[in-house]
Amino acid sequence: MTGTGGALFAAVFLACAVEAVEALTIVLAAGTARGWRSAGQGVISALIVLAAVVAVLGPALTAIPLGALRLLVGALLLIFGLQWLRKAVLRASGHKDLHDEDAIFSRELAAARDAQAERRWVVTDWYAYTLSFKGVLLEGLEVAFIAITFGGNQHDVPLAAIAALCAIVAVTLAGLAAKAPLSRVPENTLKFVVGVMLTSFGMFWGAEGAHARWPGSDAALLVIAPLTALFALGLVALLRRSAPSRETAPRVAALEMERS
């Protein structure tokens, strides 16, 4: 595996692992509170839809000229990467609550237990079905987008698909073994790293799509990524000076909830 291939595998694996952890938390809540049969049906249905999406979008990307593809993918990765990086910086600096899978699991579990049971067609519990279906589909669409865009841009969709599959299998096996949300996974740190990688690849491919030439070609990523990380860490240090204190943090959180 070349250096570029290794970077591609790592970026796809980490990004997909984060999405898989979030999907796993929702499915565990649905299965634990409502029963695994309907939750499993929701997972299978979502996977069928995702397979159809990948089957359509994968070949379509190969028909786009490489320059236009890199410009498009670079722009999309910048949008996703900057969003992830912004949230990671706000969390690391204390301006946003850390992502807590245990808390999310508890909320989903409570909501699932309070919901009324309803049978539709062959699904015995529609709530568990739809909860699992939506969780896997939404997170799975992001996984598919990451794998297809990264793989299509590098003309190595199989490698990106293998990285995504490895991430999903690893997270699923870990979740089944623990039978609980993977709260010990440093998800906030992973999101920071993934945000840096997506932003770096977005800048790199977007510039190449606009016919710019990076010094050192692919080796420029070894400079772009560390500089992006240093810039983000600098923002964290700067924002920590104005972070809410522990006494005022609950009031700030309450105000944010009221606004939303």
From TrEMBL:
Task: State whether keyword Transit peptide applies.
Answer: no
Origin species, per record, is Actinocrinis puniceicyclus
Q: Which UniProt keywords apply?
A: Membrane, Transmembrane, Transmembrane helix
Q: Where are the transmembrane segments?
A: 6-30, 42-61, 67-85, 126-151, 157-178, 190-207, 219-239
Say which domain of life the source belongs to: Bacteria
Q: What is this protein called?
A: GDT1 family protein
